[in-house]
Amino acid sequence: MDIINNKAEQKFSTSTIGGEAFISYRRGSQNSYDLHFVFVPPEARGQNIADQLVRKALQQAKDEKVKVIATCSYVSTWFTRHPEESEMLLQS
Fold this sequence. Notes:
single chain; alpha+beta; five-stranded mixed beta sheet
């Protein structure tokens, strides 16, 4: 799956059978990535696309040596399920 970082629209996105899937972000405090919305078209759900979008955003943050903020409920739940990545969360 090819996931691109569209910096102009502030989202990581990919094409799916039902259309575009994406995770939107804002640049937050300390230049972090505030991951605030995930969308996967209904036709493409259940294929771990949202998981892959989160992982791509995390890899970008790691590459830039910045943290993430889990504003989106999906992203927050994702971190609960993946405590090994908790060091990537910006603590308030």
